[in-house]
């Protein structure tokens, strides 16, 4: 708690690096995840732009400040980033100054978007209250503006993207995106 985009990112990168030592260090790594994993993956592809082959993000938290301001769980952004309490009666926290805004911006993966080279597939749910899809749309627009190979799919779904038609479409589009960027020869 209180170390989002720091310890979690370092631990994941180190774990991947160590796993590759025992397999094939020349292997191309695909990152896949959503929600909080979106924080980690967004930072990984921004901090290590030449080390990951493809990123697939489902309803990712790429902007902690936006998440704090729009999510149905604003306390999550505070707990993960500054380990601060949230008062559910007032909707406030004890960090009601500009230092919180600055910190949340600094820890957000969207601030590294200009360093990203990794192709990114985004899958977003329009009804997601946990990570409003406007966060993903903004991330997508920034990636496109920086000419990062990117695709976006928006579904009439919520945070989990688990309805049969949605899950099936996500699966097929993920495989197609991986094939396009990894040349799997399907």
Enumerate the strands of the largest sheet in spatial order, edge to edge or round the barrel. 1-2-5-6
> What's the alpha carbon Rg, rounded to whole Å?
17 Å
Distance between the termini: 42 Å
Helix/strand class: alpha/beta
Please tell me what the overall shape is: globular
**What is the strand tally?**
6
Q: Please write the string of helix (H) and strand (E) elements.
A: HEHEHHEEHEHEH
Q: Just name the CATH architecture.
A: 3-Layer(aba) Sandwich
Q: How many separate structural domains?
A: 1
Task: Give the mean pLDDT.
Answer: 88
Main β-sheet, in a few words?
Answer: 4 strands, parallel
How is this structure best described in words?
The protein has a single domain (7-182), classed as Rossmann fold, CATH 3.40.50.1820. It contains seven helices and six strands. The chain has a four-stranded parallel sheet with strand order 1-2-5-6, sandwiched between helices. It has helices at residues 7-22, 36-47, 64-70, 74-81, 98-107, 133-145, 164-182, and strands spanning 30-35, 54-60, 86-87, 92-93, 120-125, 150-155. It is 46% helix and 16% strand. Helix 1 packs across helix 2 (36-47) and helix 3 packs antiparallel against helix 4. It starts with 6 loop residues before the first helix and ends with a helix. It is an alpha/beta fold and 186 residues long. Helix 6 (133-145) links the parallel strand 5 (120-125) and strand 6.
Topology of this protein?
Elements lengths: L6 H16 L7 E6 H12 L6 E7 L3 H7 L3 H8 L4 E2 L4 E2 L4 H10 L12 E6 L7 H13 L4 E6 L8 H19 L4
Parallel strand pairs: 1-2, 2-5, 5-6
Antiparallel strand pairs: 3-4
